[in-house]
Design a protein that fits this description.
Helix content: 55-70%
Number of strands: 6
Number of helices: 10
Order of helices and strands: EEHHHHHHEEHHEEHH
Oligomer: single chain
Shape: globular
Largest sheet: 2 strands, antiparallel
Distance between the termini: 120 Å
Radius of gyration: 26 Å
Structural class: mainly alpha
């Protein structure tokens, strides 16, 4: 008989009158707010203006949500488009299913658009928000706890996660991979903040370090998961994705440090709030010259 385990909530939805409050969506929203708030503090500390991170997030967040959902639906299409499944479920984002790889990729496109509109270098912006993003991931993983999803192999460790029996799942005690990844993300946040302060990282290297460190943890956590997933050469697709992203991130770190050492100076252009005044004409200049006093002699 197991004496200790992590219980799962009986439901992932709380009803406030007719309004359903879904735990998964709530965790995602909190994560976004934390990422924008902390990213804004870091941006100001590096010489940027208050409000810039939030303005660019208006572009990055919607792009990221769409990208995350697209990656999930494409890589797990059998959950929505095989016989017996309802393809409409592909749009039910509140039931879970956001791929971080797609979220970061398409979110970067949105951030690039926002940065371009403000005349800001994307690598500098990415460095400022990287710790906030990984903290948001740590918070967002608790949404999987509410949905009782993405758990690992059966186990009898004291911190095992209790999963209740339901459609397409067996009840029992499993590795709480959501918790493992949440703790790993918090550790990554601490490491990249320390490295940024210690080595004055710039030109996108904080973001690259985040990507590399996150992929290390994600790869081994994937091996513990037992949910359905595509396999390539007997290995889960997300493991291959983590390996590829890790290699690209490390290459970027090395090359960037050689080509553009140090940290860039963030120069955020001033916004023009007033119309430019016309240049004064010769007639205007003549009108401003005081006339000589009349001769009273």
């Amino acid at each position: 008989m197991d004496l200790a385990y992590i219980p799962s909530p009986s439901t992932g939805v709380l009803h406030l009158g007719p309004l359903p409050l879904r735990g998964y969506a709530f965790c995602i929203i909190i994560g976004v707010f934390v990422a924008v708030w902390y990213g804004g503090k870091r941006w100001v500390a590096r010489g940027g203006k208050p409000g810039t991170v939030a303005d660019i997030a208006v572009w990055a967040v919607p792009f990221g949500l769409v990208g995350g959902r697209l990656y999930h639906v494409i890589t797990d299409y059998q959950l929505y488009f095989r016989d017996g499944e309802d393809w409409v479920d592909a749009f039910k984002i509140w039931e879970g299913g956001l791929g971080i790889w797609g979220a970061i990729a398409l979110g970067a496109v949105g951030a690039w658009i926002g940065c371009r509109r403000r005349g800001i270098p994307l690598p500098a912006y990415a460095d400022a928000i990287a710790p906030g993003i990984v903290i948001a991931q740590a918070i967002g993983r608790w949404g999987n706890w509410f949905n009782q999803e993405l758990y690992g192999k059966p186990t009898d460790v004291p911190w095992a996660l209790e999963i209740s029996a339901g459609p397409n799942r067996e009840g029992g005690l499993y590795h709480p991979t959501f918790l493992y990844e949440s703790l790993w993300c918090l550790a990554v946040a601490l490491v990249i903040v320390w490295a940024d302060r210690r080595f004055k990282l710039g030109h996108g290297r904080v973001f690259a370090l985040y990507a590399a460190a996150y992929c290390v943890g994600r790869a081994w956590i994937e091996y513990l998961r037992v949910d359905d997933a595509h396999h390539v050469l007997g290995v889960r697709l997300n493991v291959w994705t983590a390996v590829v992203v890790f290699v690209l991130a490390v290459v970027y770190l090395v090359v960037s440090a050689r080509v553009r050492p140090g940290r860039e100076e963030i120069v955020e252009p001033e916004r023009e709030t007033a119309e430019k005044k016309p240049e004064p004409t010769e007639e205007d200049a003549a009108a401003t010259v005081p006339s000589e006093p009349a001769d009273k002699t």
